[in-house]
Amino acid sequence: MSQTKDLYEILGVSRDASEDEVKKAFRQQARKYHPDNKETGNEELFKELNQAYEILSDPEKRSVYDQYGLNGLRNAFGDSESFDFGFGDLSDIFSQFFGGATKTRRSSGPERGADIRYELAISFLEAIKGCEKQITIQPLEDCGSCKGTGAKPGTQLKTCKTCNGMGEVKRVAESFFGHVTQITTCPSCNGSGKTIQNPCIECNGKGQKRVKRTIDVKVPCGVDDSSRLRWGGKGEPGRKGGPPGDLYVVVNIKEHELFSRNGQDIVTQEKISFSQAALGGNIKVATVDGEKTLQIPTGVQTGTVLKIPGLGVPKINNMARRGDQLIEIIVETPTKLSAEEKKIFEQLALFQEDKGKKKFGFFN
Ligand SMILES: [Zn+2]
Ligand SMILES: [Zn+2]
Question: Does the global pTM surpass 0.85?
Answer without folding.
Answer: no
